[in-house]
Amino acid sequence: MAWFRKEKKRLTKQKRELPPDVWAKCDSCGEIIYREKLADNFFTCPKCDHHFRIGPDDYAQLLLDDGLEEEFDADLRSVDPLNFVGPTRYADRYEKAIRKNGRKEAVVTGSGRIDDLNVKFGVMDFGFIGGSMGSVVGEKIARVAERALDEENPLIIVSASGGARMMEGVLSLMQMVKTSAALGRLHKSSVPYISLLTHPTTGGVTASFAMLGDVIIAEPGALIGFAGPRVIEQTIRQELPEGFQRSEFLLEHGMVDMVVPRPELKPTISKLLQHMVG
């Protein structure tokens, strides 16, 4: 007779949720990273160097001496010219994006300094309807380019976008012409423009202002292109090469000038600007 008997219990799997405010999981290698350590490492994975997506405020703090010192056109907001209705009404989706992001559009523009050099600055917010370029995004990009021209300040634009905002129809496509024309005037007057491409930069943004920089810099591993790889494969009925449309592939084929890890972005841009305005 057994005097001591331990009741056997079946082991059940328990899914542990990672507290989002304490830990982060790398999408590339699966490493679990303490968020404070991640922030200290410029939001790049210390194990595989994967670049986490960061927002406009983070890029402003990363690249400018004291962040964005003045914001331009913060109250501009899009309308719904087509009364567009898809899976959800465009007007409803737009208002939801405003509530979620605390800003009225998918780009933030303003002025700041890089190593005490005055610059005009624009940065896109992928979290706002996929960083899509509608009429107001194009208007704000054009206006910040005009300010850079008027004050002869170098212009830096950080792109992150899924492309044109087709809920606004042809008005969204017209922004490619508007932004390109404004940057053309900047180029004609020899005012420097540096374009920084982050993950992802696609569609109409790639087909316009993102690829018109005097110097085009890309973050490592960023997806950059017009149409997506799947669409291209289906169109040409061929298998695409490994790494197609990633920063390193584009650098190898002459589509971008530099691939620069995030910790080195500010000193690299500063050195370029000193050379360009010197």
Structure, briefly:
One of its GO terms (molecular function) is carboxyl- or carbamoyltransferase activity. A zinc finger (C4-type) spans 26-48. By secondary structure, the chain is an alpha/beta fold.
CATH topology of the largest domain: 2-enoyl-CoA Hydratase, Chain A, domain 1
Strand segment tally: 10
Q: In percent, how helical is the residue content?
A: 25-40%
Instruction: Determine the mean pLDDT.
Output: 93
CATH class of the largest domain: Alpha Beta
How big a fraction of the residues is strand?
15-25%
User: What is the chains' assembly state?
Assistant: single chain
Binding site for Zn(2+): 26, 29, 45, 48
Family: Belongs to the AccD/PCCB family.
GO cellular component, one term: acetyl-CoA carboxylase complex
Subunit structure: Acetyl-CoA carboxylase is a heterohexamer composed of biotin carboxyl carrier protein (AccB), biotin carboxylase (AccC) and two subunits each of ACCase subunit alpha (AccA) and ACCase subunit beta (AccD).
Feature tags:
single chain; about 280 residues; alpha/beta; 2-enoyl-CoA Hydratase, Chain A, domain 1; 8-stranded mixed β-sheet; 9 helices; globular
Structure description:
There is one protein chain. The protein is an alpha/beta fold and 278 residues long. The chain has two domains: 19-52, no CATH class; 54-277, Alpha-Beta Complex (2-enoyl-CoA Hydratase, Chain A, domain 1), CATH 3.90.226. It is built from nine helices and ten strands. Strands 3, 4, 5, 6, 7, 8, 9 and 10 form an eight-stranded mixed beta sheet that branches. Strands 1-2 form a two-stranded antiparallel ribbon. The longest helix has 19 residues, at 170-188. It is globular, with a radius of gyration of 22 Å. Residues 22-278 form the CoA carboxyltransferase N-terminal domain. Component of the acetyl coenzyme A carboxylase (ACC) complex. Biotin carboxylase (BC) catalyzes the carboxylation of biotin on its carrier protein (BCCP) and then the CO(2) group is transferred by the transcarboxylase to acetyl-CoA to form malonyl-CoA. It catalyses: N(6)-carboxybiotinyl-L-lysyl-[protein] + acetyl-CoA = N(6)-biotinyl-L-lysyl-[protein] + malonyl-CoA. Pathway: Lipid metabolism; malonyl-CoA biosynthesis; malonyl-CoA from acetyl-CoA: step 1/1. It comes from Candidatus Kutchimonas denitrificans.
